[in-house]
Amino acid sequence: MLSARDRRDRTPEEGVVAELQGFAVDKAFLTSHKGILLETELDFLRCVSAIIIFLVVSFAAVTSRDGAAIAAFVFGIILVSVFAYDAFKIYRTEMAPGASQGDQQ
Length: 105
Hints:
Layout: H1 4-9, H2 12-20, H3 27-31, H4 33-62, H5 67-95, H6 97-104
Helix pairs in contact: 4-5
């Protein structure tokens, strides 16, 4: 980042532009093979973390044995199954495409 001395020497417009260049999106990287793989891995990680969070919250909710807590547990289990299916589809289509193509031959 820029030090205070560098910020004083520049005009306010140049300082803002120089600071924001570190946050620019590199479109060439995102369209490359590594960028696509990174996006896929982050999406898969999102599904797995959602599964863990919903399982913990669902089992914590069902311990109170209220009607609303049981409904929250059922809703959480449904969401866990949806996220598990999403993670399975992401893994099958994006992360391991060679395995699914070998099964079809």
